[in-house]
Amino acid sequence: RRVHGDTPCVGIAENLYLFDHQLDDTKSKHKGVHRELVANMKKGTISPEQPIKNQQDELIGMAILSGVGGKANPVYVSPGHLVTLETSISLAKSVTKFRICEPIRQADILSRKYLVDNYPWLYDR
To answer: pTM for this structure?
Structure first.
């Protein structure tokens, strides 16, 4: 396989994972703060776009309420190689009809169809 260098990329995820600090008490504290952030975003008491910062208080991404009505959980957007955060957010919004960006949503739909068509016993429960 060949690795292509200098290829722009963007991170878009359903779940927030922060790996720069893995102590148990920090993870627990982070989960509580995150739950409160999501609840306030859904209520509309704060902006539907919220910064995600690491332990060093550096901006590493944004939590964004996407999809119809903004009632679902946010997606998490981060810049990858050669892409700014602003461009990452713009790109994520441009390919999102529902909560999940359309390329990932379509891949998920097709993979589930493939499994049902080729491995039906997995779904006969």
So the answer is: 0.76
